[in-house]
Amino acid sequence: MSRIINLILNSCHGISLTLVSFTLPIIVITIGLNGSTELIAEISLIHSLIFLIYFPLSGNARNYLLNSSDVTLNLAITNFRIILFLPLTLFCFLVNEITLKIELTKFALFTLIGSFFWFYEIFITNYEKKRKFIACIFFLFANIFIFTTILLQRNNSSEDIILSLTFYCILYIPFILYFFFTYNKKIDFQTLNLIFKKKIYHHIGGSLIIGLTSFLIKILIVTVYQKEDAGNIFLGFTLGGTLVTFFSYGIGPSILKYFKNKKITSFKTHKTIFVLTLTLALIFMLNETFEIARLKNLNYLFYYSFYFSIIGCLFMLIAQYYKLLITQKDTKLNVIKHELIIGFTTITFVMLSSFSEYSFTITLTYFISAITSYIIYNSVYQNINK
Asked: Quick one: what percent of the chain has pLDDT higher than 90?
């Protein structure tokens, strides 16, 4: 029993960070499960923009901070984010005015909520290293309460969502102000520049490509499909890729920290993926044939996107495990070329699928990205461990 409790406590920081980092996709899921798809496309676009602008400059910070005792590195990463927060936020508003043109009040609220992870990641990672749990558990339950409130609402109109997210602002804004004014902001630009070049720079290119790929894919889908159909596709991708999201940006670095001597053998990995893929494919075929489980107001694009994303999730999980492991072993490893291949392949597929006479082709997007990621990072991992 104590082992289970210890495992839960060791995971709560990563889970809490994932909920905060992916608040908007989780809202997309709760809205979709409630049968309303009008807002999904808009919220997904805002999240992709945040993901594009903030995420690349995160520089794999959580993985570094969890496995480093370098106090200077911790301070440099924090100062780096404090300096950039306002310029990046203003840039978000500029992009919205030029391209997305989403209502200003709605965009401002969603951007504030979506960018909160920029500070929370450092805060929660430091707490995890010190094995402090109270603040983490508080935010974890606060997030769950807000999501449950949204899920239980009968009508998920724009006004309802904004009202629910006002509770987030009540939690977030004081936290950000406290973090900003109490943290040591004595900035040594020479040290900051050195750490940026040695630690952060190598991962910005790869992260930028991931963010840009996600943003362009959603822009392309919204352009080709009606907003309701795009909402169904985004919901399927988001729901199907949930496990990968939790692993990659939440519990993954924690797992590597506590089980870093464990290795995944290639044969066992392939065997497990093969069995699970066949099992999931059978379950999905049965569901399509007999319509065992159906959600209201969601069309076939959602179900196909969800099916292929779940299967792709198996491959993407292993790919992300390999990626976290090799970047932790070699902090100077440049992943730009790998992410460029994955991004180019995925965007090319989306563009080609828009010309296909079969409209369901677009629902294979996540699966194609996952397979490509698995092939590339499995190859890199095997080469490193020869």
From this structure: 18
| Mean pLDDT along residues 308-321 | 92
Specify the amino acid at residue 56.
P
Sign of the four-CA dihedral 93, 99, 100, 101:
positive
Q: Could you tell me the pLDDT band of residue 221, with boundaries at 50, 70 and 90?
A: very high
Nearest to 331 by CA among 173, 221, 201, 214: 201
Tokens representing residue 44 in the block: 């997904």
For residue 166, what pLDDT is reported?
73
Specify whether the CB–CB gap between 239 and 32 falls below 8 A.
Answer: yes
φ and ψ at residue 373, rounded to 5 degrees: -60, -45
Q: Band the pLDDT of 7: cuts 50, 70, 90.
A: low
Which of 382, 180, 139, 110 has its CA nearest to residue 266?
382
Given pLDDT bands bounded at 50, 70 and 90, which one contains residue 312? very high
Residues 6+ away with beta carbon under 8 Å from 269: 318
Higher pLDDT pick, 18 / 153: 18
| Tokens matching residue 214 | 């996600």
**Three-class SS of residue 200?**
helix
Which residues, at least 6 apart from 102, have a Cβ–Cβ distance to it below 8 Å?
42, 45, 46, 96
From the list 274, 309, 302, the residue with the least C-alpha distance to 288 is 302
Is there a contact between 53 and 266 (Cβ–Cβ < 8 Å)?
A: no
- 68 touches 128 (CB < 8 A): no
Instruction: Transcribe 268-327 into DSSP letters.
Output: HHHHHHHHHHHHHHHHHHHHHHH--S--TT--HHHHHHHHHHHHHHHHHHHHHHHHHHHH
Judged against a pLDDT cut of 70, whether residue 49 lies above it is answered with yes
Token pair for residue 180? 């900003």
The residue with tokens 């902001």 is 185
- Report the distance separating Cα 121 and Cα 168, nearest Å: 16
pLDDT tens digit sequence for 233-273:
998 998 899 888 878 776 777 677 666 555 655 667 777 88
Rounded to whole angstroms, the Cα distance separating 367 from 327 reads: 23
Burial bucket for residue 10 (CB in 10 Å: 0-12, 13-18, 19+): middle
Any idea what the Cα angle at residue 14 is, between residues 112 and 372, rounded to 5°? 90
